[in-house]
Amino acid sequence: MEKRIVQFLKKHHVCTLATCQDGQPWCASVFYVFIEEEDVLIFTSDPTTRHISEVLLNQKVAGAIAVETEVIGWIRGVQFSGIVTEPSDPEVKKKVRKIYLTRFPYAILNSSPLWILELHEVVFTDNRLGFGKKLRWSRSCKLL
Fold first, then answer.
1. For residue range 88-101, what is the model confidence (pLDDT) as tens digits?
2. DSSP class per residue in the chain
3. Going by C-beta distance under 8 Å and a sequence separation of 6 or more, which residues neighbour residue 107?
4. What's the mean pLDDT in 4-24?
5. What CATH number is attached to the domain comprising 114?
6. Residue 143 lies in a domain
7. pLDDT computed for residue 101 by the predictor
8. pTM to 2 decimal places
9. Domain assignment of residue 63, given as a range
């Protein structure tokens, strides 16, 4: 993944996750940690929430991470699509829990499961590089 996209994903920690079921879209904000080596986001959510209930029926999701600014030249953000799964392997669960708690130690009080969002496509808009400049990445070909 392009280093500027990686830096952006590592710097931020809240994303909007979009799900859809029966033609009805839904969005939820989640705290995430980006794992560069795997090109995944890790987040925690209760299985009874609407977004996870929908993920359990349709793993395909989309989302966005944006910098809030009124200066057009500073607009930056990521849009993505991918697949959400709950890790089943105990070693993987242990690893992602350690990574998540390192970034968000207060999450130790949360008993909700951790979820892995495998990024499939990422578009990074960075107006600092020029108005509407986009960097693209996809899991299938790594560079577009």
1. 999 999 999 999 99
2. --HHHHHHHHH--EEEEEEEETTEEEEEEEEEEEETTTTEEEEE--TTSHHHHHHHH--EEEEEEE---S-GGG-EEEEEEEEEE---SHHHHHHHHHHHHHH-GGGGG--PPEEEEEEEEEEEEEGGGSTT-EEEEETTTS--
3. 31, 44, 100, 101
4. 96
5. 2.30.110.10
6. no
7. 93
8. 0.89
9. 3-138
